[in-house]
Design goal:
about 260 residues, alpha+beta, four-stranded mixed β-sheet, 12 helices, 4 strands, about 5% strand, globular
Length: about 260
């Protein structure tokens, strides 16, 4: 019998989308939860299996698979009984294009937004500037390292922040238009793309920034259907960290007016 082990974090958006797939496919798996704020994803032991120092990482028997989108595709290929792809090649291509958007920019934008608004306060609390920089310097990827440094020390004044917010505002508009004629993203049924996008909408809710899509009726209806699924309860709801939720809600509410100005709501 195959053995699946997932190294993940409860609040990580990339971990959430992989868990959505695991639960939707009714797979049995062992979890290794990492406290990424304490640097658990950047230890020598973990970097040996994932040199990027991020979560999630899937180990299937003795095979290591990294990158959340790749993990999702792998799970769907290896365990096809409950398929999360269309049977139509054209719709499979559509689904992959949706996921490509996340990997080629939107995920980085979410990291910028989350850090600049809320997570920076976790880094800044009870730490000197030297200690914070030492922590940041353990991040393997230099580009990601500097993005995090910028958002931690500059918050909403980060040069990266305005474009990140505007990009999501445009994305939510695009999703709403697509969902006006389709029930799901890139398939006749719930697909890998639906699982992939779920944590991004949920993150904006947790940041008290649902105003970004409050007028998007089709997108809101899609999210309602998502939340009614059992895998959403198992993969996300019952694993939420209350301390994170309180921080995100409080800090998101504090910056709402500034967000409104950026997207002219």
């Amino acid at each position: 019998m195959s053995k699946l082990v997932l190294y993940h974090n409860n609040m990580s958006s990339c971990s959430q989308k992989v868990r959505l797939v695991l639960y939707e496919k009714n797979l049995t798996w062992t979890e290794k939860h990492l406290n990424i704020r304490e640097g658990a994803s950047r230890t020598y032991k973990y970097l040996k299996i994932n040199p990027n120092g991020v979560v999630p990482t899937l180990i299937h028997d003795d095979r290591i698979i990294i990158e959340s989108t790749v993990i999702m595709e792998y799970l769907d290929d290896v365990f096809p009984l409950i398929s999360l792809k269309s049977s139509t090649p054209f719709l499979i291509a559509k689904m992959r294009l949706w996921n490509k958007k996340l990997d080629e920019g939107m995920h980085s934008h979410l990291s910028i937004i989350s850090s600049a608004i809320a997570f920076r306060h976790q880094f800044l609390k009870n730490k000197t500037e030297k200690q914070i920089n030492e922590n940041i310097n353990t991040i393997p990827d230099l580009g990601r390292r500097e993005k995090i440094r910028d958002t931690i020390f500059n918050g909403l004044k980060s040069k990266l922040f305005p474009n990140a917010i505007v990009s999501f505002y445009k994305l939510f508009k695009e999703m709403d238009e697509y969902l006006s004629e389709n029930e799901w993203l890139g398939s006749e049924n719930y697909s890998l793309a639906d699982a992939a996008y779920t944590p991004y909408l949920i993150r904006f809710e947790h940041l008290n920034l649902f105003l970004m899509f409050q007028e998007r009726k089709n997108l809101k209806n899609w999210l309602k259907r998502i939340k009614e699924k059992k895998n959403f309860e198992d993969a996300i709801t019952r694993r939420l960290d209350k301390s994170y939720l309180q921080l995100m809600s409080k800090k998101g509410l504090e910056v709402r007016k500034e967000i409104n100005k950026l997207v002219n709501i």
